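Exercise 7. Predict the structure of Sialate O-acetylesterase domain-containing protein from Rhizobium leguminosarum.
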Amino acid sequence: MRKTMAVGLAALIAIYFLGGMSARHQIFPWPQLSALKKQVVGEKVGAPSRYTFDDKERLIGDESKTLVTCPPQTDRTAVLLILGQSNAANYGGQRHRSNYGARVVNAFDKRCYIAASPLLGSTNTRGEYWTLLANNLIASGQNDNVILAPLAYSGSEVARWAAGGDFNPVLVDTVKQLQDSGYRVTNVLWVQGEADLVMGTTAEAYQERFMSMVNTLRQHGVEAPVYISIASKCLEPSNGGFKEHIPDNAVVRAQMALSKSGHGIREGVNSDALLDGDDRYDDCHFGSTGGEKASQAWLNLLRSDGRLESSR
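Solution. The predicted structure, encoded as tokens:
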């Protein structure tokens, strides 16, 4: 009896380890058993979500959004085309919503929604600070209405935005949708660079690819100034970054050079210098205080440039 039990126990242990090795390395019989289970039981259906994403993980639907009539553009309307990677997308540590109802909208796919985090058009479903910026633009008296048109992808390098990159056609389509909705972009806000620093993109290559994206905008009727942020800081391997940040790097040198190159390109917010460790909730992405600081810096910049334009 004991011998039989010992043999049975040994067999169970052998089966356990065989199953573990088979699953870990995807060798016989795990793949075959998994396929058989799917045929008999079917695929496991995930829990329903209010969010919908496209094949590049961009947020394209949110059941909580409030659809409104797109407000007409006047000379006191800001139409902000927001481009870049995660710190331009829905990775913020604080959510915001319009304090002014349909005077601040998220324009997407030729429709307008009362602006509220997360914004349609960018990746992830956390917070963002663009809605806060829009609220502040109205509160300051700079604008009566603000149209937010975000298009930002986490981890995207500048090459993907240049001609031939996979985001370039999406950029063209976004511009066309805005134009079809009766909107003329007033400001392009670019927040990107962290991915290129990690990839080792040279200053020359960064400038060339960024200018290719700007040329795409110009070729499709966007004459607005393009604000290039000084952004290269995203620490820790968990974020795809380095342990420490070196402020003087190839990406920053490229961004600084581009901001002084003309072509309607202006220097945006320097988040590398503006934010300290407490402003980034994971050593990379903007937390609540980081979003507030960035929003205020953008407000100061846009108000200053707005006064300059009106005085000409």
